[in-house]
Amino acid sequence: MRRFQIGDRVSVRDATTLFHHRTQSYVRGRTGLVVEHRPEWLIPEDEAWQRDDGRVEPFYVVRFRQVDLWPNYTGLESDTVETEVAEGWLVPAAEETTS
Amino acid sequence: MSDDHDHHAPIEGGDEISEFDVLETAIRELAIEKGLFSAEDHRRFMEWAEGIGPHGGSRLVARAWLDPHFKQRLLADGTETSKEIGIDWLDPTGTGTPSDFTYFYVLENTPAVHNVIVCTLCSCYPRPVLGQAPEWYKTPHYRRRVVRWPREVLAEFGLHLPPGVEVRVHDSNQKSRFMVLPMRPAGTEGWSEDQLAAIVTRDTMIGVAVPRADWNADRAPTEVRS
Hints:
The complex is a heterodimer. Chain A has helices spanning 44-47, 66-69, and strands at 9-12, 31-42, 56-65, 80-86, 90-92. By secondary structure, chain A is mostly beta strands.
């Protein structure tokens, strides 16, 4: 069962990054939109240790607005970044502050 | 000066070898010693892998421009649809080599959205369809800047996108590999698949350029400019 559906707003956990994880610093702690589902994949935390029978999680394509990622973003409001995030790194979007 | 007999610039950094280079050499030599493959097997593989080039990607784009059903299949399942032009992402190793993985997604440019690909963590690239990545694609300079200042980086490549076009950067940080399906340019009406494929150059499928009817990468730029 997937926890998130397309169209859900999700935040990336700002969790510990002691080992291999592939969750970029520029998305950790940020909020975006689930735009696509990816298959269930072995997560990098286990794959890095060649644990082929390790933990498998659904992955998501999350779209972030550039203006939500970078201070003083110099492009346009419409610009975005998409990247793939494992379910364990995602939580429902926190109450949004009004802008 | 003492360079009378030496007109070549010195090769800088030629003696430097990274830890990964050492690791690769060590494992390769052990594998050859153990008989897992021969030195010639290895050479043949590298010759093949390094010679792939972007022509598979160009073919995919040209056919998608001509055949709406093919385009639909390509956008729905890039890995499977690549087989229709003879590219099997699982061949020859079963793990998608010469790419790392076998999840291939094609990103369609529209009048409203311009896609560009990067791997901010390393240098992931859709090698079965585009061959080896250009040097600049692998540099920290491109990787950290295109995700942060995409419009400026595209402008440095000569691509100025108007307001009203969303720039969408795709960071291939996990298992998927991406290729851009650019828009078919004006002036190509009635063209054959071969003619169209010729103008779909590597950079247009990375997303740092757009195809033009009067340009292909097989011609030297000076020849065209005159």
